[in-house]
Amino acid sequence: MSNLDKEYEASLKSIETENVVDRAFYRPIGFRIARMLRGTGITPNMVTVISIFVGAAVGFMFYHDNLVYNICGILLLVFANILDCVDGQLARLTGIKSAIGRILDGFAGDIWFASIYVGFALRLSHEYGTYWFFALAVVSGLSHLVQANITDYYKTLHLYFISKDKGAEFQSLEQVIARHKEMKLGINKTFYFLYRGYTLLQVKATPALQRMLQSLHAKYGDDIPENVRIAFRKQSRELMRYIDLLTFNGRTIVMFIVVLIGEVWVYFLYEIIVLNIVLLLSMRKHEKMCASFIE
């Protein structure tokens, strides 16, 4: 493996949690941009903030029932996601990391899709003369938040079973609460309060996972044997094909198609019905897997 290949791999959280589209398209481009930005003084958080503004403009583009606007919206969303890759890869290449940076990174994606759902609702309301589409937008947004929350938890857990270094972002609810209490009043503490609620939802939604962690901790402490780590990751990787449908690429491939054909109402049904079914099936399989590791 060349030095460049090693550097590229070091810029990723783990090749095991990257899906095909990310590995083939987004990550290589993000890596090249991150290498160019390294040493310029531009921080990962700066890149994240830029991505928020780029992604937030997509809703305006998708509001218009116009192919040119819609193609521009697609390109903006692709660019926003490239920037989302850049901030994380730049953080790993430079060592400039922070808990707030990770929270801000997740918040960025929420802003993009919130703007898109509002844009879709306005477009459909004007087209059909009813504002009931905003109810679909709200349900879609809430579904999206829960799906992203659980998906992030599963992927971070997988990293935790690779190594302590890779899984450094995986924290228990108790650790998050303790960290929040230590923080001084300010915007960072406000963001961390939201993250505290985010973590609480993850914990409440995964009882078997929590019992597995408690069992492993009681038996091995912080030193989980390699054979257990490998066995867990083998089963976890098999679930990634379902979980990947709940990620950015799983959403946007369908979104881009419905936008280009002009039937954006289809996306709300996809988000609310199809992706929620995928979420429930994934959670059921993941909980069953975790239960198998409890002795």
TrEMBL record:
Note the superkingdom of the native organism.
Bacteria
State if Membrane is listed as a keyword. Answer: yes
Does the entry feature the keyword Nucleus, yes or no? no
Q: Which UniProt keywords apply?
A: Membrane, Transmembrane, Transmembrane helix
Question: Which Gene3D superfamilies does the entry link to?
Answer: 1.20.120.1760
Mark the transmembrane ranges.
Answer: 42-62, 68-86, 107-125, 131-150, 242-261, 267-283
Q: Which InterPro entries match?
A: CDP-OH_P_trans, CDP-OH_PTrfase_TM_dom
Q: What's a Pfam family this protein contains?
A: CDP-OH_P_transf
Protein name as catalogued: CDP-alcohol phosphatidyltransferase family protein
Question: Which organism is this entry from?
Answer: Parabacteroides segnis
